[in-house]
Design brief:
The protein is an alpha/beta fold. It has ten helices and 13 strands. The strands form three sheets. It has a six-stranded mixed sheet with strand order 6-13-11-9-7-8. The chain has a five-stranded parallel sheet with strand order 3-2-1-4-5, sandwiched between helices. A two-stranded parallel ribbon has the order 10-12.
C-alpha cells in the first residue's frame, strides 16, 4: 500500500482528501501543523501526528520515518502564523524564513517545497484526488444572479485575477462595480466579513485561481465557513472560477444557500 503524507491545516479539505485517498487504496500519514484542525483527521488517518508548523525538521523527519515520500498540503494555514504564530521555531524553520526574499504566499510555499525536496519528499498537486470537487460553469442554487449582480461578478473576476497576479489573495467583495474588500493576510473569511459590512448588504463575493496558480498549494476553495461568513455580513452572491476552485461540502452549502436566498455559481474566464 502506497503511503501519502498530508500536512493539514484548518477546514474540511484535509478530511475530504483522506477519504478520497483511501478510496484509491492509499495509506495516509497526517500531520496537523496548527491547532484547530478537524477532529475527524485523527479518526480517519492511518497515522496521525500533531507537530507545529514551527518544528519543520521534525515534520520532515517524521514523513521520512513513515516512508511518506509524497505529500500534499491542504487546509487553512494563514500567513498570520508566520508573523505571530511561530512559537520557538527550530533551526530548519528559521533557516527557511531567513532565506525568503519576501513573504508573499508563493515565495513561502515554494521555499517549503524546496526544503521538502532536500529529503526526497515530493509535493503533490493538491487537486490530484479532489477533481470531482471542482465544478464546471453553472448556477448551483435555485436563485440566479440578476443582471446587475452578474456585472459585479465579471468586474470582480477581473479584480480577483489582478490581485492574484500580485500574489495578494484570491478573493474580492464587490458592490455596484466597486471593490469593497480585497483578500490579504487575514484570509478569505475575514475579507468577506469586512467587505460585506462595508457594502451594507447585497455584496458579491468572487474567488478565482491566480493567473499562474501552482496546483501544489493554495488552490482556491470554498465550503460552509465561506457561506457562514457571507450570511454574517449580508453578502448575497458567491461566484467561483469554474474548473479551478475546490467546492467542499457542496450538498450542505447549496442546501443552506437555498434557505437563505444566496446565489452560488461557477463562471469561466472570458
Amino acid at each position: 500500500m502506497k503511503t501519502i503524507g498530508l500536512l493539514a491545516g484548518i477546514g474540511t479539505l484535509p478530511v475530504e482528501f483522506i477519504k478520497a485517498a483511501h478510496m484509491q487504496g492509499y495509506k495516509v500519514v497526517c500531520i496537523a501543523v496548527i491547532p484547530g484542525v478537524s477532529s475527524m483527521l485523527q479518526e480517519l488517518a492511518d497515522v496521525y501526528y500533531d507537530i507545529n508548523v514551527a518544528k519543520l525538521n521534525k515534520i520532515i523527519k517524521t514523513l521520512v520515518k513513515e516512508q511518506a515520500m509524497e505529500v500534499t498540503m491542504l487546509g487553512k494555514v494563514t500567513k498570520e502564523w508566520l508573523f505571530k504564530g511561530l512559537h520557538l521555531p527550530d533551526l530548519r524553520a528559521l533557516t527557511v524564513l531567513n532565506s525568503l526574499r519576501n513573504r508573499k504566499d508563493d515565495t513561502i510555499m515554494l521555499s517549503l517545497v524546496d526544503e521538502l525536496a532536500k529529503d526526497g519528499i515530493e509535493v503533490l498537486d493538491q487537486t490530484k484526488y479532489l477533481k470531482p470537487l471542482m465544478p464546471s460553469a453553472g448556477v448551483f442554487t435555485k436563485k440566479k444572479p440578476t443582471e446587475a449582480q452578474f456585472r459585479d461578478i465579471m468586474f470582480g473576476f477581473q479584480a480577483a485575477k489582478l490581485i492574484g497576479a500580485m500574489d495578494l489573495g484570491q478573493t474580492v467583495v464587490v458592490k455596484n462595480q466597486a471593490v469593497m474588500a480585497v483578500e490579504a493576510i487575514e484570509g478569505t473569511d475575514a475579507c468577506i466579513k469586512r467587505g460585506g459590512l462595508l457594502a451594507r448588504g447585497d455584496a458579491v463575493v468572487v474567488k478565482t485561481a491566480k493567473p499562474k496558480q501552482d496546483p501544489r498549494f493554495d488552490v482556491p476553495a470554498i465550503g460552509l465557513t465561506t457561506l457562514q461568513s457571507m450570511e454574517e455580513s449580508g453578502c448575497k452572491v458567491l461566484a467561483i472560477e469554474a474548473n479551478s476552485t475546490i467546492f467542499a461540502e457542496q450538498e450542505a452549502v447549496i442546501k443552506e444557500a437555498n434557505k437563505k436566498g444566496i446565489v452560488i455559481l461557477a463562471v469561466e474566464q472570458e
